[in-house]
From TrEMBL, chain A:
A GO term from the CC aspect: plasma membrane
Functional summary from the UniProt entry: NDH-1 shuttles electrons from NADH, via FMN and iron-sulfur (Fe-S) centers, to quinones in the respiratory chain. The immediate electron acceptor for the enzyme in this species is believed to be a menaquinone. Couples the redox reaction to proton translocation (for every two electrons transferred, four hydrogen ions are translocated across the cytoplasmic membrane), and thus conserves the redox energy in a proton gradient.
Domain NADH:quinone oxidoreductase/Mrp antiporter transmembrane: residue ranges: 163-461
Alphabetic keyword roster: Cell membrane, Membrane, NAD, Quinone, Translocase, Transmembrane, Transmembrane helix, Transport
Gene of this entry: nuoN
Reaction catalysis annotation: a quinone + NADH + 5 H(+)(in) = a quinol + NAD(+) + 4 H(+)(out)
Membrane topology annotation: Multi-pass membrane protein
Cell compartment(s), UniProt: Cell membrane; Endomembrane system; Membrane
Pfam families xref list: Proton_antipo_M
Protein name from the UniProt record: NADH-quinone oxidoreductase subunit N
UniProtKB/TrEMBL annotation, chain B:
Lipid bilayer topology: Multi-pass membrane protein
Source organism per UniProt: Lentzea jiangxiensis
Keyword flag Transmembrane helix: yes
Family that this chain belongs to: Belongs to the complex I subunit 4 family.
Location(s), subcellular: Endomembrane system; Membrane
Domain NADH:quinone oxidoreductase/Mrp antiporter transmembrane as annotated: residue spans: 131-425
Predominant cellular place of this UniProt entry's protein: membrane
Keywords of the record: Membrane, Transmembrane, Transmembrane helix
GO BP annotations listed: ATP synthesis coupled electron transport; electron transport coupled proton transport
Any Gene Ontology CC annotation: membrane
Residue ranges crossing the lipid bilayer per the database entry: 6-22, 31-51, 80-102, 114-131, 137-155, 167-189, 217-239, 246-269, 281-302, 309-328, 340-363, 375-395, 415-435, 475-492
Listed GO MF terms: NADH dehydrogenase (ubiquinone) activity; NADH dehydrogenase activity; ubiquinone binding
Protein name (Swiss-Prot/TrEMBL): NADH-quinone oxidoreductase subunit M
Length: 525, 522
């Protein structure tokens, strides 16, 4: 007993740099308040209050972030909460990216004009296909729990990209994943598809988390610590078991690649993207991608930089597989959402190229390039899914490609914006997609990955075909007589699409500001 | 005077915006587009007078930073070759607009949209020739595809979707591979200079000294893009489809202008940047070039469709151009560049005339025509003249260039030159046979006397038919071309004067001595 007391006295509360983690605290704190509101407010008030709270939170967190980023802070960043969270330049950039992309996604979620009542189910507990279910589809209410869930997911993502040890990273992974599983199952229409997507995502995600955790355990066995920097130190020339290191690394990376939807760990992506409510798909495609690659970048550059020669070949292969799967299977898709899902698998391959672009001298030219790519891709995707949500028939969204034929004749503006976004996804110059590819590829060539870049370029050309196919359909085909209508979007969706498209254009023309910002600092090690 | 060059790019862009807003009124849109393209022509004349043939390598240069992080600049400037190409664009676009005045667009399409795309295409293409930053060149090289994609896909024939996508993907893939090479060159420059740059002149000085393996790889990256664009056999298959499906004015732009970016790129980028690799790989390129001459000529002879015929004629001509470029003599080089110009003019004229034939008969199948000179003698004359300049008859503009290419290539590449000469003979065959089938003999063919008359039926030229001779508008479109064809045939000196110093500078950059010049020096 005395011993325990003595031990307890030696444990001191860790120092907390509240300024640095303020954005995180704002988001997670607001998420808790949001849950309370859900419990206390009468139903008819919830939507408005929750929406205002969420948007104010995101703006406030961004404000706190800007305040901290522009204040006097250590250039290499700080590790706070006993070294569990590292707030360095990449963290700040990724946080800002997550917050603005989250803002765009929340706008899409909040929209109730496109689908009366919003894209989410009015009462999740009603069984799909029943009479009550058909009644709920026409009601205007929705499950407002999506707002706290989104905030929690966002908080988890922000923690994930800043976590400086693997256990924190695991917890953040769970915090970001669990709300997403739920969100996937809350579609108002085609609920069975939506619930199937949620279950698939949950089961496979649980597997991936187990892989991740097993990897953490093995790495702990190897290094005696879960801190990223300690793993790096341990790997820097010792006689410890390489088996533990590489088995641990492999399992850990599988978990991360799963979240990032990198092929061959992408199997869930098309189903989930198709089944989930479109605003949630946008949120996942943009923000989860940022979080997962933020984590991958940090783990690879901080913990495993000095063993890069051992693992680089493997991830090289994974990147190739991902690009090929994304580009080739994308060609065969007939559903817009599945097509964008495969496109995201191909993009994950490009992003992985940036993530493994480390030079022998220990520079990581790929970090800033990958972060820029993530930001650019996120905005383009959100806007693209925003447009997908507008093309509807009596049955909900008309996502089958044949239904998009001749869309340009009926609504030239929507078709024009979507064409622009597709060209950005294809990486055509004067869009942010091109600049993103360019910076990633030049970083990779810098790091001696030229053959990989050539493969990536060929994959881009193949992928361009399925984007072009949609453009062909919209412009050069005759519309079907009973084709879908294009809903005139309400303010929220309009803002989200405009934001995405404008950023895509501006980053394509004047990328300098963001490029400079992405390149300001390196990971804290 | 560098503002003229900038204006050449800005005017059509702004014009396109204006024209796009005139979608409701076709006539106003056409007038506005024509006016803008004429302003462009005046600007091009100004540009020509501002250019000093004996001045610096790149003239009328201007630029601002674009992406400082990568040393990318928006910088423009011209040399003699770029000047000639910009001039020919400015010349052809008003003619294209004039020739398409009465053309019917597919249902639901407006003249405003079509002409706006043509003007955008003009602006971007001028910019491609004027760019002096390799990154900027790449960007424009790809952006150039977008208006053309919509022109073919939106306004073309029955298989337009297929043709548009094929055109886009071929060029896009080539461009991407070129991008890899450009980044490679950039990486070399940043190693060597400590700071990356895409400036063409700087990259030339850095990359030209690279070891030959590196040069070879970088060369191949650029070469693929240009070989697809030019197009050289076996990278040519997109061109017949694009040319056949595009509306006739767009075919003029594809064949007459866009393709020249490929050969222009060879002269501006391949030779100066990779002199070592250019010399080592020249035999390989020459094989493709000569194969193109023979293959293009033979397939042109066998074509049943007039628009596909045009594409194969061009493939043959591009073989000649590439032969001249990779023979590394100043005569052949000058010949090639003037061939680029003359090909635009004579093939452009041939396409426009064939367009007029098709507009009358409503079919592009050669077998649907026959004896047309009976009802349209002027049109027949124009087809004959444009055909003769295409086969390089002495006294027409193309003769000068083809002659220069052959005589210039012979000292260094006698075998290839002799084989290529066969192409001249075939040219006479395919052109005259085309003329003979369409224009001579009794009036016949489904397109001219109607399918109802049955096979082998012969029409009566005295009877009134719907087929008329050239209208005043058509004469106005063709007259300037006739003048230029004959003027440059007899007095090509003004053009050669502009080209020669640039070609000389290019060959100096490659570091080859000119066997012919040495003889003259003795």
């Amino acid at each position: 007993m005395n011993l325990l007391v003595a031990q307890a006295q030696t444990i001191e509360a860790p120092e907390i740099d509240y300024g640095a983690i303020a954005p995180l605290l704002v988001v997670l704190g607001a998420a808790c308040i949001s849950v309370l509101l859900e419990a206390l407010l009468p139903k008819h008030q919830r939507w408005a209050v929750q929406l205002v709270l969420t948007l104010v939170t995101l703006v406030g967190a961004t404000g706190a972030l800007i305040l901290y980023a522009t204040s006097e802070r250590p250039e290499q960043g700080v590790a706070t909460l006993a070294g569990a969270i590292a707030v360095d330049s990449p963290s700040l950039f990724l946080w800002a990216t997550l917050l603005v992309l989250g803002f765009g996604s929340v706008l899409l979620m909040a929209d109730r004009s496109v689908e009366p009542g919003g894209a989410f189910v009015a009462q999740a507990a009603i069984r799909p296909g029943t009479i009550q279910d058909r009644a709920q589809a026409t009601k205007t209410g929705m499950q407002t729990e999506i707002f706290p869930l989104t905030l929690f997911a966002l908080g988890g993502m922000m923690t994930f990209v800043a976590s400086n040890d693997l256990l924190t990273m695991f917890i953040a992974l769970e915090v970001l994943s669990l709300p997403l599983y739920l969100l996937c199952g809350l579609a108002r229409r085609r609920r069975l598809l939506s619930q199937e997507a949620a279950v698939k995502y949950f089961l496979l995600g649980a597997f991936a988390s187990a892989f991740f955790l097993y990897g953490v355990a093995l790495l702990y066995g190897y290094a005696g610590s879960v801190k990223l920097s300690a793993i790096a130190t341990a790997a820097g020339g010792t006689d410890r078991s390489d088996t533990l290191l590489f088995a641990g690394f492999g399992l850990l990376v599988v978990g991360l690649l799963f979240k990032a939807a990198v092929g061959p760990f992408h199997a869930w992506t098309p189903d989930v993207y198709q089944g989930a409510p479109t605003p949630v798909t946008a949120f996942m495609a943009a923000c989860t991608k940022v979080a997962a690659f933020g984590g991958i970048l940090r783990v690879l550059t901080v913990a495993f930089e000095n063993t890069q020669w051992e693992w680089r070949g493997v991830l090289y292969g994974v990147a190739v597989v991902s690009m090929v799967i994304g580009a080739v299977l994308g060609l065969t898709q007939t559903d817009v959402k599945r097509m964008i899902a495969y496109s995201s698998v191909a993009h994950a391959g490009f992003l992985l190229i940036g993530s493994i672009a480390l030079t022998p001298e220990g520079d990581a030219p790929g970090v800033s390039a990958t972060m820029f790519y993530l930001l650019a891709y996120g905005f383009t995707t959100i806007a693209a899914f925003g447009i997908v949500s507008l093309v509807r028939n009596s049955d909900g969204e008309a996502t089958h490609l044949s239904q998009w034929a001749g869309l340009a004749k009926r609504s030239p503006i929507v078709a024009g914006v979507f064409t622009f976004l597709l060209l950005a996804l294809a990486g055509i110059p004067l869009t942010s997609g091109f600049i993103g590819k360019f910076v990633v590829f030049s970083a990779a060539i810098d790091a001696g990955l030229t053959p990989l870049v050539v493969i990536a370029l060929v994959a881009s050309a193949v992928a361009a075909f399925f984007y072009l196919r949609v453009i062909v359909l919209m412009y050069f085909s005759d519309p079907a007589p009973d084709g879908p209508t294009v809903t005139v979007p309400g303010a929220f969706t309009t803002i989200a699409i405009t934001l995405g498209a404008v950023v895509t254009l501006v980053l394509g023309l004047w990328p300098t500001f963001v490029l400079d910002w992405a390149g300001t600092g390196t990971f804290l090690s | 005077m560098s503002w003229v060059l900038i204006a050449l790019m800005v005017v059509p862009l702004v014009g396109a915006l204006v024209v796009a807003f005139l979608r409701k009124n076709d006539r106003t849109a056409k007038l506005a587009a024509l006016a803008i393209s004429l302003v462009e022509l005046v600007l091009a004349v100004l540009l020509w007078t501002a250019y000093d043939p004996d001045g610096e390598r790149i003239q009328l240069a201007s630029g601002v930073d674009w992406i400082p992080a990568f040393g990318v600049r928006l910088s423009f400037g011209i040399d003699g070759i770029a000047l000639v190409m910009i001039a020919v664009i400015a010349l052809l676009i008003p003619l294209v607009i004039g020739a398409g005045w009465a053309e019917k667009l597919p249902a639901g399409r407006s003249q405003g949209g079509y002409l706006a795309l043509i003007l955008v295409q003009e602006a971007v293409t001028v910019a491609v020739f004027a760019a002096t930053d390799v990154f900027l060149f790449y960007v424009l090289f790809e952006v150039m595809l977008i208006p053309m994609y919509f022109l073919i896909g939106g306004y073309g024939g029955a298989r337009r979707q297929y043709a548009a996508v094929k055109f886009f993907l071929y060029s896009f893939l080539g461009g991407l591979i070129m991008l890899a090479s450009a980044i490679g060159a950039y990486a070399m420059a940043s190693d060597e200079l400590g700071k990356g740059t895409f400036d063409w002149a700087t990259l030339v000085t850095v990359v030209r000294d690279a070891d030959s393996t590196t040069q070879t790889w970088l060369f191949l990256g650029f070469f693929l893009a240009f070989a697809i664009k030019a197009p050289l056999v076996p990278f040519h298959t997109w061109l017949p489809d694009a040319a056949a499906e595009a509306p006739i004015g767009v075919t003029v732009i594809v064949v007459g202008i866009l393709d020249k970016v490929g050969t222009f790129g060879m002269l501006r980028y391949l030779l100066p940047m990779f002199p070592e690799a250019s010399k080592n790989l020249a035999p390989f390129v020459l094989v493709l070039a000569v194969a193109g001459v023979l293959y293009g000529s033979l397939l042109a002879t066998g074509q049943r469709d007039m628009k596909r015929f045009l594409a194969y004629v061009s493939i043959a001509h591009f073989g000649f151009i590439a032969l001249g470029i990779f023979s590394f003599t100043s005569q052949a080089g000058v010949g090639s560049v003037s061939y680029m110009l003359n090909h635009s003019i004579s093939t452009g004229m041939l396409i426009l005339v064939i367009g007029m034939v098709i507009a009358r008969g409503g079919s592009s199948q050669i077998s649907d025509y026959g004896g047309m000179s009976k009802v349209a003698p002027l049109l027949a004359g124009m087809l004959l003249l444009s055909g003769l300049t295409t086969l390089s008859l002495p006294g027409t503009n193309s003769f000068v260039s083809e002659f220069l290419v052959l005589i210039g290539s012979f000292p260094t590449q006698p075998v290839f030159t002799i084989i290529a000469t066969v192409g001249m003979v075939l040219a006479a065959l395919y052109v005259l046979w085309l003329y003979q089938r369409i224009m001579t003999g009794p009036l016949r063919g489904d397109a001219l006397i109607g399918a109802a008359a049955g096979p082998g039926a012969v029409g009566d030229p005295e009877r009134k038919t719907a087929i008329g001779d050239l209208t005043k508008r058509e004469i106005a479109v063709l007259a300037p071309l006739v003048v230029i064809v004959l003027a440059l045939g007899f007095y090509p000196q003004p053009v050669l004067d502009v080209i020669t110093p640039t070609v000389g500078a290019t060959l100096t950059e490659v570091g080859v001595t000119d066997p012919v010049t040495v003889q003259e020096g003795k």
